[in-house]
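Notes from the 1:1 (GR / supervisor)

We went over the backlog. Supervisor wanted to see one worked example end to end before approving the batch request, so GR pasted a single chain during the call. The sequence is below; no edits were made to it. Supervisor asked that the structure be written out right there so they could see what the output format looks like.
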Amino acid sequence: GQINLALAARRHLRDGGSITLTAGVLAEHPIAAGSSATVTNCALEGFVRAAAVELPRGLRINLVSPTVVEESMPQYGPFFRGFEPVPAARAALAYSRSVEGPQTGQIYRVY
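Structure output shown during the call:
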């Protein structure tokens, strides 16, 4: 879904515009019963790196990859035993960096 949205956005963004996708810690640290999430996260990382060199008109694309966020621990904590959660506000800084910064093809890990 995110890849299709990014591809559709190319036609609608102004020159130099920014696309930011979201993956997560499972790209590097798989969990039990999370293989499909790991595959998806890894695919998104690869897409961002490749799309960055292909996007026209100075468009930029990056990805934010946070670990589990503190605010979701009541629901997801049992799946992320041993992971140190981060506040959502800290993950939000990576989105700001992606949108407002000049980089493209970056994976912003928030662990």
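Supervisor's comment: The chain has a mean pLDDT of 98.
Batch request approved.
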